[in-house]
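re: ur question from yesterday

yeah so i grabbed the chain u mentioned. its 319 aa long if i counted rite. heres the sequnce exactly as i have it in my notes:
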Amino acid sequence: MIGYSLGCAAPALLIMFLGPRIKQATEPEKVYSASDFTKLRYGRIMNVVSGGVALFNMFIFLTSELTSIGNIFSQMTSFWITSYRVSVTVSMGAFTIFYTALAGYPASMISDRIQAVSIILFIIMLLIATCVLPANKVTWKQFDKASNWTTGGLETAIIINIGLVSSALFDQSNWQRVYAADSDNSLRRGYFGGAILVFLVMMYFGILGMLGYAKDPAAYDSYYKYAYMSFFDTLEPLKNGWHIVVLLLACSLSASTIDTLQNAITSVFSHDFMRLRVTWDPLFIARFIVIAINVPAIYIATNDKLNILQLFAIGTLST
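ran it thru and got these structure tokens back, copy pasting raw so excuse formatting
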């Protein structure tokens, strides 16, 4: 958990230093992503290779996010029905495609602000649920089983840090923010503050995840419950009205991440679109690519046999 939290925060610290330098190296060219930098610095072949790795990585994470929102609805509503999961996944994919294709990156910036508010509300709800509800009380012995310190865990933490940092550097949504920053100082302050907050938030959710596992380890060990959503167990004792609030917050979090990835995928091609000498509107081509990439992601995400952790591992190892 400590390794994962550090791994999530480390890319922001790295981009805090790399971002201004790479941005300066591409001036005065108008670029939109790190793949544009590789083209200017290393040529078209490296541009294609790095762009391909970035696309595959972001596609995997997009599929994972779409799968997660369907699983969250299934767990919180107790409807383990494939058709219900499919309808939620397809609806989320279609909705984000609609406003991403129309508004592009500015829509993603607005949804990021909504995501920040959702996380704050989530933290408050989880804090109350874990501290007040008797059903969430666990003994020290139960929690100790969920929080063992092992050599294997340390090895995994090191591997996770390498993988997450590499993966984040290929995630074009990070580089979109680099080029959207109004100044280098703003960029550094934003990423430094973001790194601290990401570490704290990931640690918080990680501890609550261990608490959820400690309540019912047998269900997670037998894969009856999804381990990556164990912190949702702490919310189950709440009344149904609170469950609806949780689902609304989960939708806002998922939509914000999905639209960010959708815009990031499009940014890989944006520079080449602007140079095309064709009658088609570059914006129309970008919208078409958003739809073309999302349709297979939605289709794969409707498969109820997918393992989210394996998907994330594939995306991370690809980099």
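noticed a couple things. Residues 123 and 204 are 8 Å apart (CA to CA). also Residues 2-317 form a domain with the Sodium/glucose cotransporter fold (CATH 1.20.1730.10).
anyway ttyl
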